[in-house]
Amino acid sequence: MKKILFIGAVISILSCTSEKIKTDLLVKNATIYTVNEGFDIAEAFVVTNGKIVEVGLQKDLETKYEAVNLFDAKGKTIVPGLIDAHAHLLDLGMSMQQVDLVGAKSYKETLDRVVAFQNKKNSDYIIGSGWDQNDWELKEFPTKEELDSIFPNTPVSLIRIDGHAMIVNSKALEMAGITKDTKMAGGEVFLKDGEPSGILIDSPMRLVWNTYPEQDKSYYIKALKDAEKICLELGLTTIDEAGADRITIELVDSLQQAGELSLRMYAMITKDKSDLEYYLNKGIIKTDRLNVRSVKIWADGALGSRGAAMRDEYSDQSRHHGAMTTDEAELDSLAKIILKAGYQMNTHAIGDSANISVLRVYTETLKNEEDPRWRVEHAQIVTTSDFSYFSKKILPSIQPTHATSDMYWAEDRVGSERIKGAYSYKTLLKKSGLVALGTDFPIERVNPMYTFYAAVARKDLENYPGEGYRIEEGLTREETLKGMTIWAAYSNFEEDEKGSIEIGKFADFTVLEKDIMTIPEDEIPSVKVSVTFINGEMVYINN
Q1: What are phi and psi of 15, to 5 degrees?
Q2: What is the pLDDT of residue 5?
Q3: Is 112 within a domain?
Q4: Of 333, 338, 357, 443, which is least surrounded by CB within 10 A?
């Protein structure tokens, strides 16, 4: 890493003989990681009309420019505005209106939280999310008996932390029309003694979602604003929304245009037939804050709920392989339609079977394309011989905290051989030349400092394991910062407008209280955001 010197002497000489240039904002007295091609460090930069106009030495820029506003970083660290390359903003906001089950250490604690919520809210339909049986002493799926005894007449739907399983009571099953005979491709209704146990995996969950009470527009506006507040406090400036319908996208656009939502969004539309027809016929939609040019496809479920599609049976459940939620033939059909429309295809693939199906379809579809940048979201369990499919055309979009959340039980699911191709971030980087990093919030916590730490140290927040989980697949700090900024921007076709602090780009930047590139590794998770700027405007300050 090196200091940006530019042509300071020439600037100083010219400034002595001419008037200062008017500008909106001068940022100074900082350690600025520009994340440009040379990964240079600067002291100051200048912003006009929401864009960066010059970067360099503080004394030179102070001499050359007269700024309306001055931001003195007081020696703090500045990085480009952080991008979460895979997240669910609306889901985060909605989860804040529901029962929070994240971190519950038992099914009893899960039920206690539901009861406490209902005593306070008295909802006609109880909805919660965030439970994970892998955090419980008894690591088995619950059944509906306890829910039925507590809530015999009120429907209850509690979604697993990965969003690919739920536990519901009998009332919710009745309203959804789910019986022992319900069969749906790409999912499963678990049975106990020949009747639904209350556990649903993937596709049958839609039947329950269809019975949820309708919410008015104000509910979704509040959800988006509540979620944005958290993101801004944590230094995020762009969110890749991994699956949004037309109603949500148009609501986000209207709020952004009205100045009520500051976050930028890269939206992946869902494969809903009407949404696909609308957007693929309309073409790419681009404003300064919103970019709609990709489609989110789900190839399979999640590993934690054993819904991930595996080539061989699960190591901890014989004769079970998970399931493809979109089979290879449909993936191929969708890929052709998406390519023809000029959109990017971003496909959720967890299991090794799902990953190879996606990789085969991508490779064939893109063989004559120069720069498609299609993404495999998660790329979680990949057969080691299949890594060769990844390239500059086929990019991995990965979430480092998944590795440190799943490491306690992942090998139990897939065994000692298949785990060699799991959470292999360094290998994916070598094959594609870049990785886009995100969190998958609210499945994982929003904080990008946790992402940074998990990528570099490969440890959880309790500093486990001491040597790092499969540390050979860890990333360097420079690679990680790039994955959260310029590489994420590249994966969104936005590298010319964001992702680094360079002339002509949006003045999106995050001010950190400590230098994450140099501090001791174990201090990274506790680093706080001091200020967040979007478009040269302060959208969050930690008072």
Answers
A1: -70, -25
A2: 43
A3: no
A4: 333
* Main-chain dihedrals φ then ψ at residue 374, nearest 5 degrees: -70, 145
Q: Are residues 455 and 308 in the same domain?
A: yes
Element (H, E) at 128: strand 126-131
CATH assignment at residue 166: 3.10.310.70
Quick one: pLDDT band at residue 125, thresholds 50, 70, 90?
Answer: very high
Q: pLDDT tens across 46-69, in order?
A: 999 999 999 999 999 999 999 999
- Encoding tokens for residue 510? 């995050």
Containing structural domain, residue 372: 299-475
Reported as a single tens digit per residue, the pLDDT across 467-486 is 999 999 999 999 999 999 99
Between vectors from CA 253 to CA 259 and to CA 531, what angle results, nearest 5°?
45
Is 524 a residue whose pLDDT tops 70? yes
> Is residue 202 located within the same domain as residue 321?
no
Q: Could you tell me if 360 and 468 lie in one domain?
A: yes
Each residue of 484-508: pLDDT tens digit? Answer: 999 999 999 999 999 999 999 999 9
- In the chain, pLDDT over 90 holds for what percent of residues? 95
The Cβ of residue 432 has, within 10 Å, a number of other Cβ atoms equal to 24
CA 357 to chain centre: 22
- Asked if 434 contacts 491 with a C-beta cutoff of 8 angstroms, the reply is yes
Rounded mean pLDDT, 196-223: 96
Measured CA to CA, the distance from residue 447 to residue 432 in angstroms comes to 26
Q: How wide is the angle at C-alpha 130 spanned by C-alphas 129 and 132, nearest 5°?
A: 130
The number of residues in the chain equals: 543
pLDDT number for residue 475: 98
Residue 84: helix, strand or coil by DSSP?
strand
Structural domains counted in the chain: 2
Q: Enter the tokens of residue 226.
A: 């509540």
For tokens 């010197």, name the residue. Answer: 5
What confidence score (pLDDT) does residue 11 get? Answer: 41
Q: How confident is the model at residue 6 (pLDDT cuts 50, 70, 90)?
A: very low
| Nearest Cα to Cα of residue 237 among 10, 542, 538, 13 | 538
**Which of 209, 230, 249 marks a domain boundary?**
209
Amino acid at 39: F
Last residue of one domain, picked from the residues 423, 457, 475 = 475
Q: Which amino acid is it at 520?
A: P
CA–CA dist 103, 116 (Å, integer): 16
Instruction: Answer whether 27's CB lies under 8 Å from 47's CB.
Output: yes
SS3 41: strand
Are 477 and 516 within 8 A, CB to CB? yes
Reference 390, options 427, 444, 354; nearest CA is 427
CB count within 10 Å of CB 153 equals 8
